[in-house]
Amino acid sequence: MSSVFAFKERAGRAAGPSLSRPSAALRAIARPLLIALAAASALLLCTRYAALPLLAIRHVVVESDLPLSEEELLKISGLRGTEHWNTISTAAVAKRLEANPLVREARVRKVFPDTLRMTIKGRQAAALVLADSGGRSLPVLVDGEGFVFKVGATAAEVDLPVVSGLALGETALGAQFARGYKPLFADLRSLREKSPSLYRLLSEVRVLSPATGIEAPAASSGCDLLVYLTSSPVAVRARGTVDEPLLKTALMVIDLLSNEGILKDIQELDFRGEEVVYRVKEG
Questions:
Q1: Is the pTM of this model over 0.85?
Q2: I need a labelling partner for 118 at 20 to 30 A (CA). Which of 76, 192, 238, 260 fits?
Q3: Which CATH class name applies to 54-122?
Q4: Residue 120's closest CA among 97, 148, 89, 99?
Q5: Among the listed ranges 89-93, 156-160, 186-190, 207-211, which one has the minimum average pLDDT value?
Q6: How many Cβ atoms sit within 10 Å of the Cβ of residue 247?
């Protein structure tokens, strides 16, 4: 047997919780406040969309050392002329610029209210490399990081030392030589920047295959180099590096042997050990 219980409301009292109505004074304050907030929001939206045309990117300032016109650089940057100051991504523009093999570094910043400033630094050649690729010799320009940024250059185009004896599997722009050769290109870049007179004396650096074959050594110290100077027919054999001390010492020894009248009989100077060894010509 079930029972049903019901509670009757007492006269003059609501069954549920009671809600008091706001006072007339509070209603008088709240209504204008809500109207003001709505008006402010509408004004903010109108101002934002009305200001968009005023914040359009109208000026692009380009600072670059690349042999490219501003039109070409703008094309590489991907700018379409419809960008706005408050919505454009400077990081995305810089990334598109740095994707080009000629560009080493790109910095992009906004200048209020309508200007974009791009500072672009190009890759500087450390050497003209005659690389073996697909059974043929391919001339390429390489920077101080071993990065190929021009294919098909010739010695007549640039006044650079030639690096030979390297293998390059990929011939496309943006290819990079094996990490083991990077110190060699870094040395050449340093010479060009710090000792340009010594750098100009370099005619050719021939990389000799390490004992393990034609694969790149784990470090540049693992391969022998034959260095040829424009001022001497005598080759200089070194291990792994072509730096300022090596070239200065080589020039001093060459000058000494020339003064002694025996330079014409010498084929090669060997700087790989603690003492300099020279090899005479056969016959």
A1: no
A2: 192
A3: alpha beta
A4: 97
A5: 207-211
A6: 21
